[in-house]
Structure formats: C-alpha cells, structure tokens
Amino acid sequence: MRAPVHEPFKTCPPVKGQDIIKENRVADFRSALASGRTLLLDGGMGTMLQARGLSAGEHPEQFCLDRPDVLRGIHADYLAAGADIILTCTFGGSRLKLPAGIDVTPFNRTMARIARAAVDAAGREAFVAGDMGPCGQFVRPLGDLHPLELYEALREQARGLVEGGVDLFLIETQFDLAEVRIAVAAIRAESDLPIMVSMTFEQGTSLTGTTPEIFAETMQNLGVDALGLNCGLGPEQMAPLMERFLACSSVPVLAEPNAGLPELVDGKTVFRLPPEPFAEKTAAFVGMGARLVGGCCGTSPEHIRQLRKAVEAGTPGVSRVEPERHSGIVLTSRQNMVRIGQDEPFVVIGERINPTGKKELTAELQQGVFTKALDFADQQKAAGARVLDVNVGAHKVDQKKTLPELVSLLTGKYPMP
Asked: What radius of gyration do the chain's Cα atoms show?
C-alpha cells in the first residue's frame, strides 16, 4: 500500500500548461520504470566539480550557485554519455548542511532548474531527480536532532526541488533508517512525485545496523518506487549485497557503486577503477535483475558512457536473482524485522503498556514518568515478545507529548518493532 499523499504546499498559483508538462514527464518516468528497460543514472558530481575548479574546503553548493555554467556543463556531459537520469546538485541542500546565507528553497529551486535546462537542451527523453543526501546528524534517541526539525528541514528542500521542476526524488547515501523514513514523509507532504531511496552499507549493514532486508521492507511499506544501494563500495564488493536486495525487493532495484574502493594518496582520496572494468562489473547487476545503474564517487561521464555500452551489449552468463515471495505484513525497526502471516511462525506481541485498568501506570503517564512502562517492556521482552504495542490513552494524559517521548525511550532501549 502506498503511503498517504498530503496536500502539496503551494507558493504560487499553478500554471496549467506547466502542470500538464510535468504530469506527462512523471507519467513517462513511471512508464519507463514499468517497461522493464534499464535506466542509467549519472555519475559522481564531486569528482567533476573538483576537476572544474572546486577548491579544497569550498562548499560545492555555493560553487554551483556562483558557477551555474560549470554545473550545466557537467549535466550536459552526463546526458551526452547516455544517462537517463541526472541528479540535481543538492546532496547537501538542507538548512542543516547549507552554508549560512543560502536560502534553502530558492537554492534547491535554482539547482533543479539548471538540471531541467540541461535535459531540455539535450533533445531526448531524460529525467531530473531531486537529490537529497543525509543531514549529517542522528535523530533522537541516537542523537540530539528532533525528528520534527529534520522533517521541516527536508520539506523546505523538497519544496524547492518541486518548484524547480524535478521529475522524481532520489534520497541517497543514507545510513540511518529513521532519517530515511522522515525524508520520505517530508517529500510526501510536498509532492506525489516518484521516490527512489538508496542506502550505504559496509560489511552487510548500514552504520546504525540496518540490513538490506530491513531497509527494503521498510521502504516498500512506505510505498517508494525504487530502492537500492550506493557509495562506500566498488561494484565487486557490492555484488553480494545486490543479490540480497534483488531477493527481497518487489520494486525496481538500483545500484550506484564507486569507481572501486577509495585510497588515500598524498592526502587525497582517489578511486582507481577505470571506466571499462567499472562498466563490465556494474552491468552484471543488470543481468542479475537490477533496473537502474549508475556511478557514485570517482565516476565520470566516461564511466557512464562505457556502462551504457556494456548494458546494451548484454551480460551473458550472469544468473538472474528471483525475488522471494512472502504473505502477510512486515514490521521493522532499525535492527529487527518481524513477519506476520499464515505462513510465518507465531508472533507474540506485548500489549501490557496500556493504562486501561492499570492505576499505577496511568498515574505515572499523567506525570510524564515512564518507570512502570519500561518495567512492562522488560518483562514482555523476557517473556518472548517480538513486538511491543504502546498505548498511552488515559484521562489527563497529554497523548501528543507522552506517546512520542515513550516511544523514543523504547526504541533507544529495545531492538524490536
């Protein structure tokens, strides 16, 4: 089931002709995604900006504001190389990462329009993805960032990208499942455009302990249009993870490996995998079943050009990975996944954190105290509960304040959903 779509935020009256054009582009993207054809994303942006004048320590978003001609040229080079999807230069485009003095929504609108102009000038079908990277902080309870603060920051960014004319969104290089959930919700509050989501993995999990299977099931619960992985690894190291993604995903899977593993040479990070071997190894993902491929750190238009050739040449000898089928529903947390269905093992759900008939728990909740609730959680976990059900509905309990506070405590202490 798709996540509910909220009423989009409007900053000005819609222009009917422009709305029709955008609707057609979105329909074209969804049609391309459903057609079974392979779609190519572009390659690295930071590498290209550095090659064209971005100095060490300079903020790439500020550089792109100051040199839109350089950015437009990079987009044009990727389109000429065969990319079907180019990403806006907005990886760090939220108020949590942009330098002081840059207004978030206008900045993202401008970056989207530059990418849009490059696609229009290319004279062929291609799509603009609004790029949203990680905020660089952890949300509570892992860090100090309030989830609502992140939500509002990402809404600002999404609003500008929508106004600038993107066809879809790519939430990429994510390492925390909580942030990805918030990012999807923030986009949905502004738009019903397609959403693709990509996470970064090392040694089989994300930085906060999420496996490919947990990530995929969570994103499918949220109704995203495609999911996968990017960055951190070269295509060779990424292959085992791709097998896992393709086995558990019912939506198209994407892969954007680096040009090999990073190496530190004379104080600089370099990626040594040349375009042709990169293309050969990455095209194999298409033979396995991936629907979208591209490049991340260290890749260039030449990497994408060679990847286009390799994909069109085919990948004989590569075995296709068939997705597993499950009935029922899936509940997820950062580090745990529980399937509930007729073909799944019996699941105990702990429901004692409920003030009905519990005077001591009710009194504590009325005071904003959670000692008894946490005791119940401990008891139920020890008794074999795999899921905790939480209810704070009682007389004189401020539920809007109490429920998030209690859930935050529980998710910080217990791994189960």
From this structure: 23
Sign of the C-alpha dihedral computed for residues 213, 284, 73 and 232 taken in this order: positive
Q: pLDDT digit string (tens) for 41-97?
A: 999 999 899 999 999 888 998 999 999 999 999 999 999 999 999 999 999 999 999
Query: For residue 141, what pLDDT band results from cuts at 50, 70 and 90?
Result: confident
275, amino acid identity? P
Are the C-beta atoms of residues 298 and 270 closer than 8 Å to each other? yes
Asked if 246 contacts 216 with a C-beta cutoff of 8 angstroms, the reply is no
- Confidence band of 269 (pLDDT split at 50, 70, 90): confident
The token pair at 107 is 């900045």
CA-to-CA separations, 161 to 165, 324, 350, 372, 377, in angstroms, rounded: 7, 35, 42, 46, 42
DSSP 295-362: --TT--HHHHHHHHHHHHH--TTPPPPPPP---SEEEE-SS-EEEESTTS----EEEEE--TT-HHHH
Average pLDDT over residues 288-314: 97
Sign of the torsion formed by the C-alpha atoms of 120, 126, 127 and 132: negative
Model-level pTM?
0.91
| CA-to-CA dists, residue 7 to 190, 284, 364, angstroms | 7, 41, 38
Which 3 state secondary structure label does DSSP give 386? Answer: coil
